[in-house]
Design goal:
80 residues; 0% strand; mainly alpha; 3 helices
């Protein structure tokens, strides 16, 4: 029987792993010309707004990848 808070714990695990990843793996740095063209393309106010969006997406991407890798390892080798 599944616990009623399991989906919440899954999401919390993704965010925790993403937080740890962001501390260890910095987000990719864009060149100045590419960053300015992205700001113009997406109608952003400045580079700060672009980098905030970039860091948020990087944070969520790393957390999701780590969650699926850890789940695979758990189901493949550690689960009894």
């Amino acid at each position: 029987m599944k616990h009623s808070l399991e989906p919440l714990l899954t999401l919390a695990g993704i965010l925790l792993m993403a937080f740890l990843s962001v501390l260890l793996l910095p987000a990719p740095a864009l060149g100045l010309q590419l960053a300015q063209s992205l700001v113009q393309r997406f109608h952003l106010l400045d580079l700060t707004q672009l980098y905030i969006i970039l860091y948020c997406l990087w944070f969520l991407l790393l957390g999701t990848v780590e969650f699926f890798v850890m789940r695979f390892i758990w189901k493949r080798w550690l689960a009894v």
